[in-house]
Amino acid sequence: MSRSRTARMVSAVVGCGVVVVTMTGCGGNGEAPGQAHQTVTVYAAASLTDSFTDLAREFEAEHAGATVELNFAGSSTLGTQLQEGAAADVFASADQANMDKAVDAGLVEGEPSIFATNTLTIAVPPGNPAGISGFQDLRGEGVSVVICESRVPCGAATDKIQEITGVSLTPVSEESAVTDVMGKVTSGQADAGVVYKTDVTAAGNAVEEIPIAQADQAVNKYPIAELASARNTELTQEFVDFVRGSRGQVRLAQEGFGAGF
Questions:
Q1: How many Cβ atoms sit within 10 Å of the Cβ of residue 148?
Q2: In the β-sheet with 120-124, what is the strand arrangement from edge to edge?
Q3: Residue 35 C-alpha from the chain's centroid
Q4: CA distance 82 to 92
């Protein structure tokens, strides 16, 4: 499957790591005469960008007259936006902690469910010029490493790896979304970045992967939930079920996600 996403309509909100993708129905499954147009707005972790963009297209193709609007960012950023009153129907977080905050704030309808898992790895530029062989090498003299902020799931998992290994990193920058970490590596601004395995899969030949031996001790679980502000609860639940169903699980597995249940 091609990793190119240049054909998609994507607009980035610079400075906060947010990407909004609007998918609209097309082809023979367009809105039927007299049928009301329906929209599902999904707030999803940045690491879900490729998989959810594809799943949104498939969902629209099977639901005439439906549009899926996707807002991607770090889970903590999304949670803050929701608590500040952003209108959305679905929240898909990269960790349980940020979903719990949404639940505690009364933003979630029903019980969130785990739909995927993810683990950390190291991304380096092609050829691995800094000679990184494992997590401990990220402390090497002259090595520029980029990680996620502790408040976002990939950063919290990175903190856990540091505790497990006893290796304290001194990153040149800490980003609010894992996609921004990958961007620093692919643009040549860093020798290495701690990202998810799924990000390396999505990047294709743009990076090389250096495994983290302790990654299975810091697994991130991804919960998804319908929000209390959902405008069309039936369509919203159908999207959640679509992600958790066989079609969604197959697509997520192609990106390197583990099964959530």
A1: 32
A2: 173-175, 145-148, 192-196, 120-124, 208-210
A3: 33
A4: 12
Name residue 42's beta-bridge partners. 70, 90
pLDDT above 80 (res 44): yes
Half-sphere exposure of 241 (CA within 13 A, CB side): 6
The set of residues, in sequence order, having a beta carbon less than 8 Å from that of 101 and lying 6+ positions away, is 79, 83
Residue 3 has a pLDDT of 40
pLDDT of residue 37: 57
Q: Per-residue pLDDT for 84 more than 90?
A: yes
d(CA 161, CA 103): 27
The rounded Cα 220 to chain-centroid distance in angstroms is 11
Query: Given phi > 0 = left and psi -120 to 50 = alpha, else beta, which region is 116?
Result: beta
Mean pLDDT along residues 218-243: 96
Distance in angstroms (rounded) separating the CA atoms of residues 180 and 73: 10
Paired tokens of 258: 């583990």
The string of DSSP codes covering 48-80 is: GHHHHHHHHHHHHHHSTTEEEEEEEE-HHHHHH
Q: Are 95 and 221 in contact (CB under 8 A)?
A: yes
Q: Is the pLDDT of residue 189 over 80?
A: yes
- Name the E strands within 129-219: 145-148, 173-175, 192-196, 208-210
User: Which residues, 6+ apart, have CB-to-CB distance to 153 below 8 Å?
Assistant: 45, 74, 75, 76, 93, 94, 95, 97, 98, 220
CA 242 to chain centre: 17
